[in-house]
Write a structure and sequence with these properties.
Blueprint (H helix, E strand, L loop, with lengths): L2 H17 L6 H4 E8 L8 H15 L4 E10 L2 E11 L13 E6 L2 E5 L2 E6 L4 H7 L11
Parallel strand pairs: 1-6
Antiparallel strand pairs: 2-3, 3-4, 3-5, 5-6
Length: about 140
Amino acid sequence: MNAKQARDFYLDYLNTIYNERRVDQLERFYAPNVVSHPPIPGAEPGLPGLSMGVKGWLEAFSDIRLTLDGLVYEGDMLAPRITITGVHTGNFMGIPATGRRIEITDHPHYRLQNGRIVEYWDCPDMLTMLSQLGVISLPGQGA
């Protein structure tokens, strides 16, 4: 896979899974035994756990959109920069729907093998999200 193919692969993934909400297509993009770093709390390993995590985002943010802002591809590693937007209309990580809009940045990293993701590292900007949802106040925001 070259850089253009990696970009096309990732755009197809974002559009299919998140923007079109077709979780049933995860196996097109991920190996069955995909490894998540960090593991999704309470999820079984591999594709079943990943599917649970994706569904959690889709159920919590009814109009979720993931937009590709940039991408680096080298060797077997794909490192995009994405913006996640949506309105919090469902339970997310124990937080009841707030009706608030979020816009956060994420920088996941993926290791590819045979055209599928076999391992990924993800740490979205949860601090900003929790602030936007009104769960926490950041310094300078007031109480």
